[in-house]
Specification:
Helices cover 47% and strands 15% of the residues. The chain has 328 residues and is α/β, with parallel strands linked by helices.
Length: 328
């Protein structure tokens, strides 16, 4: 069993051979199925000008899924503060929280959401990369506007997304719960956790350190099937691990034929060892280990596989096995 709530990160991969509008339509079905399965929350990630991920604004997906569900928490994972006016974010998520009471989260991150410099500048109306001080000011302004300008009730639950000790330091200083991107930079997780817990200052948002860890999890009834399903993401990840821009999200057949180099295979093996891929027993065992290692209050699973049915089945297998008492 896993001694932590389970949630999901929706990245909205646009599969080769399918249109972005089909991926967009899948997001609603995905939310309804995860609510049926009893998952705690779904967050939507912000991406732009990507050949593999749909450019669907988290606030729009949150509103869309909230309208067709009744209990599951929904929100951003995250909106990227440098791309938006702080007051606009406060108004958008404050309104959603008032309309869907007790169900809306505002996860805030820093990255540009794109590998394309021209797109990043267009999002920021010509401005260059944000500085640490500017990002800190933006996050503080969002929180302030939620309270002083929006002032609706209840407010959305704010989280800070982080993959480094710098983000952990900011979350601790502001007294925010932290969502760690273990699915992106797993090697940074231990140091970021240590910094966050050591420096945490209680606030109106959070009385004690509160940790969510996001992990890539792909589950199937057999190990071979799980490896087949994770193949497309391995192609994308191989490029990212080398610092290249994103590639289209291939079919499993295309991924099986992809010529990985020895260096890519070593990098993927190292990354996969820190995620969770395999049968229900393997995946739930790894997730339970991650909770024990990190002391996470919650796990968020991201499952970038080609077929929606396979993705939902992965979440279903994990939830069922995680809740099954183990015999002595």
């Amino acid at each position: 069993m896993i001694d932590a709530p389970l949630s999901a990160l929706e990245v909205a991969m646009v599969q080769t051979g399918r249109r972005a509008v089909e991926t967009l339509r899948d997001t609603g079905a995905f939310a309804r199925e995860l609510e049926r399965l009893g998952y705690h929350r779904i967050w939507y990630a912000e991406h732009h000008h990507s050949p593999a991920i749909g450019a669907f604004p988290p606030v729009v997906l949150t509103a869309h899924s909230a309208a067709s569900t009744s209990a599951i928490r929904l929100g951003s994972g995250g909106v990227l503060a440098p791309n938006h006016a702080p007051l606009t974010l406060a108004e958008q998520f404050g309104t959603l929280a008032a309309l869907h009471q007790g169900r809306i989260d505002l996860g805030i991150g820093r990255g540009p959401g794109t590998f394309d410099e021209a797109t990043a500048r267009a999002l920021r109306r010509g401005a260059g990369p944000t500085t640490d001080a500017e990002y800190h000011d933006d996050v503080a302004a969002i929180l302030s506007f939620l309270v002083d300008e929006v002032a609706l009730d209840p407010l959305p639950e704010p989280w800070l997304l982080s993959s480094s000790t710098a983000g952990a330091t900011l979350a601790a200083r502001l007294g925010l719960p932290i969502a760690l991107a273990h699915h992106i930079r797993p090697d940074n997780t231990p140091a970021a956790l240590e910094r966050y817990r050591a420096a945490f200052t209680p606030s109106r948002w959070c009385e004690r350190p509160r940790v969510l860890v996001c992990v890539e999890a792909v589950c199937a009834e057999t190990e071979d099937e799980a490896k087949w399903r994770v193949g497309p993401m391995n192609v994308v990840k191989a490029g990212l691990l080398k610092g290249l821009s994103e590639t289209p999200f291939p079919t499993p057949e295309q991924a099986a034929a992809h010529p990985f180099t020895a260096e890519e295979r070593r990098a993927l093996d190292g990354f996969r060892a820190q995620q969770a891929v395999g049968t229900p027993e393997t995946v739930v065992g790894r997730l339970a280990q991650l909770v024990a290692e990190t002391g996470a209050d919650e796990l968020m699973l991201t499952t970038p596989v080609y077929d929606l049915r396979d993705r939902i089945q992965s979440y279903e297998l994990i939830k069922k096995y995680a809740e099954t008492p183990k015999t002595p």
